[in-house]
Amino acid sequence: MSNRKKWFSLDLGPHNKKKSSGNCGCSNPQGSCDSGPEKEELNAEEFYEAAINASIGDERRKDGFDQVFDVQMDRRDAFKKLTASLLIGAGAISSCTSVIQDPDSKEKAQIDWEEQFKGNYKLMTDEEKKQTVDRLMRSYELRTGKNISMSSKNAEEDVLFGYAFNISKCQGYMDCVSACVEENNQDRKSQMQYIRIHEMKDGKGFNFNEADDNYYHEVPAEGHFYMGTQCFHCDNPPCVDVCPVQATWKEEDGLVVIDYDWCVGCRYCMAACPYDGRRFNWSKPEVPENEINKNQHYLGNRMRKKGVMEKCTFCVQRSRKGKNPACVEACPTGARIFGNLLDPNSTIRWVLENKKVFRLKEDLGTEPKFWYFMD
Amino acid sequence: MRQLKVIRSLVIDSLDTITKGSKKYHLWMGFLTLVMLIGMYCYSIQLDEGLSVTGMTDRVSWGLYISNFTFLVGVAAAAVMLVMPTYVLKDIDFKQAVLIGEGLAVAALIMCLAFVVADMGGPSVLWHMIPGIGVFNFPNSMLTWDVIVLNGYLFINISIPFYILYRHYQNKEAKKRIYVPGAVLSVFWAVGIHLVTAFLYQGLQARPFWNNALLGPRFLASAFAAGPALIILVLAIIRSFTAFKIPDKTIGKIAMIVTVAAQINLIMLVSELFKEFYAPTHHSESAYYLFFGLHGKNALLPWIWTAIPLNVLATVMLTFGKLRKNPKILYFCCFILFVAIWIEKGFGLIVPGFIPGPYGKIAEYLPTGIEVGVTLGIWALGAFVFTILAKTAIGIELGELRFKLKQTES
Ligand code: SF4
Ligand code: SF4
Questions:
Q1: Which of A160, A194, A232 to mutate to test the pocket of ligand 1 (most atoms within 8 A of CB)?
Q2: The domain that contains B146 carries what CATH number?
Q3: B88–chain A nearest CA distance, Å
Q4: One-character DSSP codes across B218-276
Q5: Do the Cβ atoms of B387 and B32 come closer than 8 Å?
Q6: Is residue A59 less than 8 Å (CB to CB) from chain B?
Q7: Residue A282 domain boundaries
Q8: Contact (CB, 8 A) for B41 and A79
Q9: Using one digit for the tens of pLDDT, what is the confidence trace for A189-240?
Q10: Paired sense of beta strands A161-166 and A309-311, if any
Q11: Is A344 found in the same domain as A209?
């Protein structure tokens, strides 16, 4: 188990401890490993349940959030909500009743009710995950008359995703940025972007201070080079520890994900991220109906609501199907490399073993799974 | 049965006192209500549109709300400076001041919680944080620690004065055996709430401006200056508007506390400035931004250069016993000290933590009108709560409110 990571682990004390406790099920006596990777049983879930049992009550109790379902909230409703939420917990009820009063179908109300009362995705069984995903799909259909497909696919065994970025190749075209926005249904109004491309001056080294991450001119610009940043899916992610409600966590395949329905929007994780990896929905995200990517994953590009955190998920909806993330596919220069770090034959492993790779702010002990290299 | 009756009569009596008062009192309460309503309205807009109506962005993701929250935790913690000598060291002349101080702590805590709720993106799912129903990420997240200590402190600070007042209301002595342990506990607890709140920031390796071992101690020092300074001001107001007697000696002693805390705070400031500017590193950029501006961006300069001179001036003036003994000068010093620390521990602490951003990007932050409206509303809420608490407490302490008395009357 330990030799699996040694080629990128800095071997920091606290980090190691975490690894051994949150490890994959292979060595666990539960034996889901024997049943092969095909079986979608998630050891992590059971494990977490056992480990954090004390802090979790009835996980399936409730989950109140009407915004997913586009419930209109006028001023008066807002006032109602305010008082209700001050009375702690009553918030869920008030938003529910407004749904029930809606003359729309009973099924919608039923779905909303169940969604209100669902728990944290991280702690759900596979069964529950499937149920919530089904509800969300049905709800979308009821509301818009269109179908989406949403997956709740868990991490696969023996997969740990990693990313490498070739600084010599990147020309700053930003095709990755637009592909990412389209793939992940990011808010068009605020022009949210997970990826930032930093334009740096030749001869100044990696001087982020003088870099421009918001340029609007023809690229590649003379005398400049480019470097992309996004969420690095740290192996020891500070953003995860600080979340007061465990709405964000590291999956078994190394992806750091967020349950948008569980996030309370405190933005503590944003303050804790040293890499500017997180984005917040300051207002209700807007994506034109015809631009919505309907191939979704619960932890990935499904529609968000206002007041929750989101970020790059290495396109969990794609990567768990064995595809490359949208940015990797869109890059015209081949500067982006993605793959399974545990597969000795993968390109990413080749890069890590044959190139002089480095990571940003390694001194912080966050262990990003995102390397930079040059030709 | 009897207990219930007493409580009922206490509630009725206190409702009676808080609704009666001089014209000035009614004006004051009316004014606070108005501000609160404006705040509510602003908050309803924020609920409606999302936090985009505030000045916060992905680059500076905490602003005025969290600044005020941080500062008010300090004010709340400061009640302990009065509790300690009174209850534990039997320093009798603090007794009335303590009731006021604890009332202030309760008001400050309520404001703290209100600011946190106002800052949340999804206030209606805040119950996700309630242990048992939601998922409480304890002990990993410092925010959960903060929730625990703040609520615990609120509980302590409500129950101790309530017990004392409840006994006095029935014309009985409050039993030392019962409230002293609580008071001792609250002393440690107050240090706890402040340290934990400092750790909230201190523990983030991503923000070098906060990731600094002095942050916690400096929080304590500034809190023990700003909190008692506010208490002095409040006592002065109460003294001139009510029959409640607060001896000069009490105020003098609190002034002493303020002075020492302000001096320590200043020493720590010097230490901090030395570290940032003697051998500036990449990590000193936030401090540079705060004090001198970076690349022509200098939104915080007017604030911090108001705060520092006020802070120094107040500390120096307070240091001279003669000046400190003059009530006018004392009140003035307390006021400017309070303002200075509000700027320093609020705005001056939270905002530069985000500037420059993780990759050196400098995006400035200015609160919007709505944010200011909500903030004022919450301050009004705090003042409102405090006025109610203080009025009842004073009524009971002056003997105007008595259980027996009322029964013989009716
Ligand atoms: S880059 Fe930031 S958001 Fe992504 S895992 Fe690391 S700390 Fe978390
Ligand atoms: S914003 Fe959401 S994900 Fe981030 S720390 Fe707060 S609750 Fe957790």
A1: A232
A2: 1.20.1630.10
A3: 36
A4: HHHHHHHHHHHHHHHHHHHHHHHHSS----HHHHHHHHHHHHHHHHHHHHHHHHHHHHH
A5: yes
A6: yes
A7: 161-373
A8: no
A9: 999 999 999 999 999 888 888 888 888 888 889 999 999 999 999 999 999 9
A10: unpaired
A11: yes
**Is B363 at the interface with chain A, CB within 8 A?**
no
pTM (2 decimals)?
A: 0.84
Give the three-state DSSP class for A249: strand
Pairing verdict, β A295-297 and A149-151: parallel
Atom of ligand 1 at shortest range from CA of A233: 5
What ipTM was estimated for this complex? Answer: 0.90
Neighbours of B124 (CB within 10 A): 26
Pairing of strands A370-373, A336-340: unpaired
Helix (H) or strand (E) holding A161: strand A161-166
- Rounded CA gap, A341 and A347, in Å? 9
Q: What pLDDT is attached to residue B398?
A: 83
What's the whole-number mean pLDDT along residues B299-310?
93
Residue B173 CB-density burial (10 A; 0-12 exposed, 13-18 middle, 19+ buried): exposed
- Tell me, yes or no, whether A3 lies in a domain: yes
Q: What tens digit of pLDDT does each residue of A169-200 get?
A: 999 999 999 999 999 999 999 999 999 999 99
What's the number of domains chain A is made of? Answer: 2
The C-alpha of A319 sits at a distance from chain B's nearest C-alpha, in angstroms, of: 26
Cβ atoms of B345 and B68 within 8 Å: the answer is no
Residue A169 falls within a domain, yes or no? yes
Evaluate whether B157 touches B179 at the Cβ level (below 8 Å).
Answer: no
Residues written for chain A: 375
Residue where a domain stops, chosen among A51, A72, A93: A72
Domain that holds residue B313: 2-409
Pocket test for ligand 1, best of A163, A366, A370, A371 (most atoms within 8 A of CB): A366
Structure tokens at A204: 């100044």
CA of A57 to the centre of ligand 2 (A): 20
Is A247 a pocket residue for ligand 2 (Cβ < 6 Å)? yes
Helix/strand/coil for A206: coil
